[in-house]
Amino acid sequence: MKVLKSTLAIVTAAAVLGVSGFAQAGATLDAVQKKGFVQCGVSDGLPGFSVPDATGKILGIDADVCRAVAAAIFGDATKVKFSQLNAKERFTALQSGEIDILSRNTTMTSSRDAGMGLKFPGFITYYDGVGFLVNNKLGVKSAKELDGATICIQAGTTTELNVSDYFRANNLKYTPITFDTSDESAKSLESGRCDVLTSDKSQLYAQRSKLASPKDYVVLPETISKEPLGPVVRNGDDEWLAIVRWVGYAMLNAEEAGITSKNVEEQAKSTKNPDVARLLGADGEYGKDLKVKKDWVVQIVKQVGNYGEVFERNLGKNTPLEIDRGLNALWTNGGIQYAPPVR
């Protein structure tokens, strides 16, 4: 899988939305099928979400969402190429048609969903919230003790507003230092240029795992915002939006039904459960509505995994990030992950 580093100039959304042709909605699936792969925008290197391994293969839950889309469309999860994008580049790359889907730890907000020519399909890859990472030697146990702190923040993110709101609401002062990439922010914390690194908590755990001495740093207990992270597509192409949405829902439904990468083929052949039969294409033609083959869910789960498998492989307790499922557990297990049925 080829990894592309975006060199797109940052232009205004208004200029981008004026682009004709491919950037206009309605033809994404046709274009993807014609070129033979999904072009997926991911982060510029965030462990657990999207980061290249020693061979250059992009690993992470965001990357796996794109692989699942490729599995549904082509029956082959390898038919995806990745563009690594920083926070400033990501929306421009999607608006212009440089990428087909943005799957890059991106928060769903009203202004992004309604005012930028973009659309969030509604499948939330990861429920998150902004927090703070500090060196233990700073001696603080709560965000309320950060009055006067110098804080590293990644530019072009919702974190900037969230931190400003939190400090103003709590009558605290701080000095922000912004960076274009998450790695630059983390290195500045490690060097002592700033007292605190702030971002979504999942990103803080990921960045901590990359520091020279991760155990010297702690994520403070406060979560100061709601950050539902999920894939993004261009507005107006309902066909493509539906595919991305139901790929995510299929992964959740598979986990809830106990369908895994190891048993999915057998379940498709032998299940007596009507819901499972519909999900796996053994009953009905529900893939036809999405313009995919009837075994689209089988291919997703077989090649990529159900949601729980993807979570545990990239973020779970047996990874360097050691993240609990928490809110991202299924609704049946005390979390809020819930998917409508395939029927």
From TrEMBL:
Keyword check for Signal: yes
Give the highest taxon in the source lineage. Answer: Bacteria
List where the protein spans the membrane. Answer: none
Which keywords, in A-to-Z order, does the entry hold? Answer: Signal, Transport
Question: Solute-binding protein family 3/N-terminal domain: which residues?
Answer: 37-267
- Which segment of the chain is annotated as a signal peptide? 1-25
- Annotated GO biological process: amino acid transport
What SMART domains does the database record attribute to this sequence? PBPb (SM00062)
Pfam families attached to this UniProt entry: SBP_bac_3
* Stated family: Belongs to the bacterial solute-binding protein 3 family.
Q: What is this protein called?
A: Amino acid ABC transporter substrate-binding protein, PAAT family
Question: Species name for this entry?
Answer: Pseudomonas antarctica
Give the encoding gene's name. Answer: aapJ_1
